[in-house]
Amino acid sequence: MVTYPITMTVNGTDRTDAVEGRLLLVDYLRNVLGLTGTHVGCNTSQCGACTVLLNDQAVKSCTVFAVQASGGIVLTIEGMATDGKLHPLQQGFWEEHGLQCGFCTPGMILSSYDLLKHNPDPSEVEIRHALEGNLCRCTGYQNIVKAVQYAARNGVLSVPAEESAQTVGAQEENGVAG
Amino acid sequence: MITEAFEFHTPEDVQSAVALLSEHGPEAKVLAGGHSLVPLMRLRLTTPSVIVDLNRIPQLCGITTENGSITIGAMTTHATIEHSAELKAMLPVLPAAATLIGDPMVRNRGTIGGSLVHADPAGDWPAVALALDTQLQLVGPHGERTVRADDFFVDLLTSAVEPDEILTNITIPVPTGRVGISYQKFAHPASGYAVTGVAAMVMLDDADVCIDSRIAITGAGAMAVRAAESEAMLRGTDLNGGSIDHAAEAAGSGIDFLGDIYASEEYREQLVRVYTKRSLIAALRAATSGHGAEAAKTI
């Protein structure tokens, strides 16, 4: 079995491994690093349950090979809370009943985070447009939209501590968006 | 499902990528944004034993403008095009059409070059590229060549790119004068792919007579095509006088329509008429309002 060395920063922690070329980023996160908050839903790039941030952009980690993420910065749902305190987006999903079974929630939160970073005060239409790639089979989306609005309303969107220091440098080094 | 095992290469310049393709022949496959290739590999519908990833070749990314034309690197993502202030000012149909592709995560990874070379019959960029008279630059072991969009889409999932060639960038002449461009699509509600999409460009003189027109249709047949007959019916006419209706009726002539579980051949034929009309009306509105471009999708 041919393996390739990879290094990446996941939720602020540097990781180094040797992986097969065909190992998907989502399987690396879940099965190698044990970060099972990133979910596998449709496996066909449609449902968005596997959404993580890679180099400051929301991506479907079931459609990226782990080797492609080497050298990059990854943020998963496990990196959102800081010092045991929920991120405003997580708080929003809690307060507004933005989840039922919870399966889509990590992906919803990461996609919403990507939206709010670029558009801190989105309209309802903009929120719905931004979440087009995330499917929820429980809520009917109403409360998910409210949860994002809650986060936008409740002060400046805070950047998870692990990510803030390193994102800028990583983007400059990488230079290529995919 | 997990893909079959493959060798993974990350060349850092175009020449190295071409050399890898020459070395490995038909076993090798180029990886761009991966949003068509990786799902196909996971279903084992394609099983390349060598992957040449273009994501670490910086010169394949970016947007430049020169002498009234726009050049876009093949690895430029849909999201980059969607958010480009330069394109919004110079050729707003490009960012407007980009916004209609897939979803934000797909647009963050998917590339314009990957979409064009993959030549998916339901892709959006093939229709836009045809309507804008795009030139596509290819590099292979024997040097460079340029292919016009009209000659680029050969058949179902087949473009003019040879297995040992790489699309490096595309060049689009920016039309000047009273020009309106539109892309309108009927999107599949789950995937967002075009069940039918129509890109239309109209150029008017001061009396609103159509000097030139280009119409391109995706999603309807095996590959994106121009509606040459309809274009000819518009030239020299006042577009407010009923010629758009006649052109829309004729738009599907020559297309061998696809039918599937979601849309029958007859339904796609009807969609082509409706969306050609909508796209031409939107292009006319854009040309006369001076806004330049419109794009919309219906689900």
Please state the average pLDDT score of chain A. Answer: 89
Which strand-content bin applies to the residues of chain B? 25-35%
Characterize the biggest β-sheet of chain B.
Answer: 5 strands, antiparallel
The greatest interface here is: A-B, 34 and 38 residues
Q: Give the low-pLDDT segments of chain A.
A: 164-178
Series of H and E elements of chain B: EHEHEEEHHHHHHEEEEEEEEEHHHE
Briefly note the CATH topology name of the largest domain in chain A.
Ubiquitin-like (UB roll)
**Major beta sheet, strand line-up of chain A:** 2-1-5-3-4
- For this structure, what is the CATH homologous superfamily of the largest domain in chain A? Beta-grasp domain
- Measured on Cα atoms, how large is the radius of gyration of chain B? 19 Å
Alpha-carbon Rg of chain A, integer = 16 Å
| Helix segment tally of chain A | 7
Largest sheet of chain A: 5 strands, mixed
Span between N and C termini of chain A? 27 Å
Number of domain units of chain B: 3
